[in-house]
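Q: Fold this one first, please.
A: Sequence and structure below.
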Amino acid sequence: MKKTIIAIFLLLASLSSSAQLNTDRVMMIGRNALYFEDYVLAIQYFNQVIEARPHLAQPFYFRAVAKFMLDDFEGAEEDATACLDRNPFFLAAYQLRGAARQNLGKFDLAAADYQRSLEFFPEDRLTLINMAIVNIELKYFDVAEQFFDILLRRYPEYTPAFVVRSQMFLEQNDTTRAMADLNRAIEIDPFMSQSYSMRGLLHFQQRDFENSLADLNEAIHLDPYFVGNYINRGLVQYHLNNLREAMANYDRVIEMDGRNLIARFNRGLLRAQVADNNNAIEDFNKVIELEPNNMMAFLNRAMLNTEIGNTVAALNDLDVVLAEHTDFFSGFYMRAQLKRELGDLRGAERDFNFARAQEARARQIAVENPDPLEINENERDTREQSDRDIERFNLLVVADRTESSSNRGNTHQRQSRGRVQNISANVTPESRFVITYYERDREVPRPVYFSPLIDDANRTLGLSWILRATNNEASLNELQIQAHFRSIDNYFRRLDTDPNNPVLYFGRGMDFMLIQDYENALDDINKVIELNPDLTIAYFVRAVIRSKQLEFNPFEAQDLFSASQSSSIRTPERTDITPGVLPRLPEISTRSFEHDIIMKDYEKVIAMNPSFFFAHYNIAEIFTLEKDYRAAISAYTRAIELEPQFAEAYFNRGVSRLSIGETATGLDDLRKAGQLGIVQAYSIIARMRQ
């Protein structure tokens, strides 16, 4: 999904440049890095272009995109402004700056940018929904509703519009219209987790706990890695007096995110309710470790220490609380009792007298202000995370409403900041495997694959970093970027004295590939093969480099106007999959000349090392791109024969089988892929069962 939004940003900005050849080259390498999500590296390249040609608008825009994706919204706003100063008709920059300002809370300015964009593209979904959102934030609900009306007239089945509008209705306390919008969203797209989450919370507010539980169960089924749903389901289970199930939900949250304060605090309270005092104390210990000024946790821990007879620890905790809350008379009564037990009778009397005076003062205030505060029925049992009222110390915690609303429908949010928005994304096969030094961690572990070819290359080549095969590449950080630039300089010096050493060319080619300079990388790997045609892994690396070039280059030639009309929304779209049946796609190969060249390298690898299953897998990926699904299935099958735990091959073979109508065997493959750790397989299985 992230690559999609980057491609769209780049497409919107594909304007001709007047820069010199060298500047063009650096720009291209920077855009390679941007497309492949190496944002820090991309910024460094665009810095060079800006320094050399500060009058150009494009490098400021692309640097703004990179900063935006790194959550540097201030920097993105500044660069987008610099872009527009140089070219006020650079329309993509208005959208980007509006998104940055929206994230910064500058809603008036964001609205102005979106309005400028709408003057040229009045039916753009991204801009229309963001215009509605900023008007909600500004409390201009009538204006926001007008934008929703325009959006839904043009796109009547655009699910995110119903979801975001329901949030607006909730903010206006119009639960009837909010429920109608959520029902409609689920009717249109029954695989969008966020719709069920929101409807579950709405049922909860209406104290319809059974329906709330059913919706949250479905939300978790569709998105088992969004912790907020478990926290909310725990709250519902608590209201259904099912404390063990409630705790199980908080256990799950803590397994995924050990630093989640809400789950830790709530589990501590529930453990205390079932007299699991020692474990409850452990939870409050962790809360205090993570948030040292959490007086609620200190007070609860004090009470638990009192229960287990640890009077000194309880007294120490109460001292912390009462230093902060000098009017909390119940705490002074409690401390008076503890001091009495420890033999400090004078201190106990002092605390008791102070508590009695504070209580009398509170009673007097209550007499003078007899009208009690109105408290929502559900809020009697819960408090928001920012609520510091010490009297509510023993209530379960929920996320702040303001925090929840601030994330409302933000269509520009990164995936890592809003996974719920991407749950219903179109089915995408697992990507090709590459040879690299760096790999990202996965939320769910997958099998570790061993390849004798790669192991042998690491032993014989003696490179500075360990080669590995992965389809989950990690972007380079600043230190890694600097290290590889230094490594390239070092290889240049060594090649001056040893110009026919293929290992030096291979190492430098790997460095060039990692900094996204594919032209130089390809030149070096060609030289490796010329000097040592028996180095099998070089052919695989060359195929990977050519694949990366081919992946980035085609969109450069696409038409700007048609691209601007395409969807640039980061929120969910309905998949083309019909529930229960996938369309039978043509099996005619559309192989390109570029694919032929890449295929020859993979075939050479297999001829030299038939057991290298990554080459079979990557060949299958090319067949899939060409819509030759039967050939892809055959290649994936061979890869699985060589590596029986090849999760990605099972997943892709399953998708390919579904694409040609082989539903039963396709689902079997997806089940195996899910078993091996590819979570999205279960989402496809659920869709096919509808």
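Q: Good. Now the second chain.
A: Here it is, same layout.
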Amino acid sequence: MVFSTYPTMMNAIDDVKNKRSEKLFTSGHFDLIIIDESHRSIYKKYQDIFNYFDAILLGLTATPKNDLDKNTYSIFELENNVPTYAYELGEAIEDGYLVPYHTIETKMKFLEEGIHYDDLTDEEKEQFEETFDDDVKDISGEALNSFLFNDNTIDTVLQELMTKGLKVEGGDKLGKTIIFAKNKKHADFIVKRFNSLYPEYHGNFAKPVYTGINYVESTMDDFEVKTKLPQIAVSVDMLDTGIDIPEILNLVFFKKVRSKTKFWQMIGRGTRLCEDLYGVGIDKEGFRIFDYCGNFEFFRTNKNGKEAKMMKSLTENLFNIRIGIIKELQIMDYQTEEYIEHRNTLIEGILKEIKGIDESKFNARMKLQFIHKFNQEDAFESLSDADVRDLEEHVAPLVPSIDDDELAKRFDYLMYTIEYADIKRVPASKPKNRVVSTAEKLTFKGTIEKVKQQEELIYKVQTNEYWEKADIFDHEEVREALRDLIKYLDSKSGEIYYTNFTDEIMETKENPGEYSVNDMQSYRKKVNKYLMDHQNDMVIYKLRNNKPLTEDDIKYFEKILWQELGTREDYEKEFGDEPLLKLVSKIVGLDPQAANEVFSEFLSDESLNINQMEFVKLVVNYMIKNGSLDKRVLNEHPFNKRGNVMHLFDGKLDVAKRIIGAIDQINGRLSV
């Protein structure tokens, strides 16, 4: 049995040898691979590990993802939201393996609405004027705890925690508590305010916990011990996941969380059982969550949250943007000596990077067909869209990082973005404004000789004339001249403000816990259930009752089926190319009254014989059940059991045509 981290295994596959100096970890080395916390880090380059080994994969996670670029289910070749086995939080609580929680959700005026000068007292207005520039009259709620820290807001949260938080030692001592802070400065200020409010604890009761702080490991070790202080850990991303402290009784969400995965991982910190927490034989029965940033309210509305997309590396982005330029320079308009030479220079650089890929590495060996195809100059003679996709997907992630100044590389990427946009003839106002801003900042570094040498160009790029006339070669001149000067600019550091305006609690609600973390149903079941449960929603009602639909109604169904219940990819995987309205209509059917109204003239036509009347009723019942009718089924059983339509309505073809017209009318509502 082998235990390993992802990076260690990546290296071990290539480097570890057995006693016979043979590669130890061949593709068939393992029969079973168990991946703990499989919602994390198994994508992109680490996914190569699982592609390399020919073994059964068993993934364990409390929060699987189904994002487009981070899909836990797809790694294990499962349908979205249909794991092989699921044991939900609610079940674990009911079975006595975890404890439940309840929430105290509080809306505070400044966090919700921001700070407005006109709402302050005269004394506070004076402080506001001393703190901020004359043109500042409003501070957004987002600014709080980012770069503005208000004593009264934080004091209110801490006092509520100390008053309402669950306690131990007969109610004399706050139970172990995690406060999830927005950033390091926020964490430090929370601890500072706590020590100011409660000096009797001598600075030991609450401690900040974040990377880079002195003795953070020791603080965490002490926090995990029931009898040791601190009792409150103010965490910035260090205690959100991966810790198991049964004594935790209170969680404080003092920052917004929009990742569903992270949100439920954070809640999980308080779910552990703890025997004798309140005394001998008195066990932990639950925990309390204080939410000051509307997180629970957000996730009630947005069940799947907003997961962050996977970021490409700077090296990968630089590679891809140049591939894009190379492809665009294939256009006939650019077949001049100067453009051809520039394209060849870009190709030369790309080839050098591809040839720099270490083919002895296992993840490179898995992509050899692409590496060997594109490390030849003739592969770039005429790139296709498929070539570009192959380069971006299979080659770019393998390109070794360029050993260069990161700031210079970022400026390269900025200028290449502008070049690519100009070739495509699309606007690039934001990147261009960033170049102008960079040039303006460089004018304040004139005492540096290398900056002084580029004085003319630095002033030139700040003019409208430059941007009106510049071509790709002018942009290249700017890129090459300024890339090495970026390091001389001052690093950006926003000013921090401290205030003490009187905040107020607008609303407080106490709610029981909610335990439906993952919607473990197949996409088809979710679609069916939603549509059947919401038949009285206006758009579904219109469809069921044969009312005309609009483009906005189509967008309603697209939002429900392609965003809220799953993705368009899920839809196509489950239902193929079935038109959206036709599928919905098939599930919800047609209201009997609406169907009878359309066919009423035939249902009451006493001139029809018994077989013709039976045919009409078959049509009506079929449309009630399926919402529409493909006329091809009229040639199938049971419609054709008395002969085809022409034979059945012999002598009454006008009636048959009107019946077909009624069918077309109902079908027509599905073609918006």
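Q: Anything worth noting on the second one?
A: The longest strand covers residues 101-108.
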